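Quick one - first record:
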Amino acid sequence: MSKKIEVCLTPALIGLYDIEESIVVVIDILRATSSITYGIDNGAKAIIPVAQVEDCLNYRDSGFLLAAERNGEVVTGYDFGNSPFSYTKEKVGGKTVVLTTTNGTKALHLAQKNAYQVVIGSFLNLDALCTYLQNQDKNVLLLCAGWKDQFNLEDTLFAGAVVNKLRQNFEHFDDSSVAAEDLYLLAKDDLRKYLRKSSHSHRLAQLNIEEDVVFCLQLNVCKAIPVLEGERLVALKN
């Protein structure tokens, strides 16, 4: 099978792609998909992405952990937001988390409507993800969550890293894949330095969470690949 890989640079463009036979990789590096990956790797039973903060309240009496973030900050009254440091074994092991974020959960819900399969990508599980994708006889769409439907650098850099690793396994690339890979090759020797240019990096710096940014740019500290099954993200069983 001749497989193609494409990069959707913002959720606003996903309607332009035919994804019924594609594995969609949702990418929100700072910080939703990094935290989801870390949480599932640390033994979270499931993570349930919901669109709105109010949707979390439907689970108030479920015994689940409730996580809500808007504009980079924890929503008042919730257990935590989307800092990866909230998704340690001690906090989430064996538990279910209900999560809503500014960009990542929106992208997940858009992908869920039509995709063959939806998985989660981050630098934390880059190699595990790429190994899985190259072994599937499916097209791949790398969906960048962006920032409020706008292009962002960090998600595009990760998409470029995936393209770079999978280049030998796919025959068809779109122009956004070429651009993403070129950006990644410019930045790969010092991702943090390159991302100091990004608007979201500046946004997060104002919130004094530099540790989160550095953590999310680590390579291959996780083996887990979160996959959407129904309404829940769980660990993919290879």
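second record:
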Amino acid sequence: MLHESSLADAADHLWEELPGHRVEILNGSIVVTPPPDGPHQESLTWLVEEFSRIGARQAGLRYIGGIGLWLPTGPDDYAVPDFSVVDDDYRDALVEKDCYAPHVFRLVLEVTSTNWSNDTAIKVGTYARAGIPAYLIADRHHDEVLLYTDPKDGKYPDPQYFKRGQSVPVPESVGITLDLSVDTLLDGDD
């Protein structure tokens, strides 16, 4: 129990000492991500505008940047996805530490930064084990977008890959109809 408590305490301490950084506990390890660059944040702003434009709120959804996702992979594990689409009543699923239970998340999206392997490897497994129906990665390191859907037995099937000039259809399981530009997801709003 001492390890679990000290790991959570260490993550809290890092969060306080490193303003603007994202601190997560993934598979029992603390992961610190530096502040995002401008194009990264432009992509997220554009997503908010797109989900607003198509009426996601009227469909019973909330779309939120930087909301905590409690993970079943360890006693203190949590992630903070760049962008999430959640059920309208997500607040009823608060677990602790401003993190919410996985069952209210319909889609999570990560825009890769300098530690891109966390998003393209570690989080694929953790989000699948959490049962997140759709995981979208704007992989700026490899200049492509990946879409993982429908995890079974804690694993996603192989992803769909999308290249520049294409659009990514938001999966039906999210509850809205929307196509997202690969170029804008990778570069931000031009």
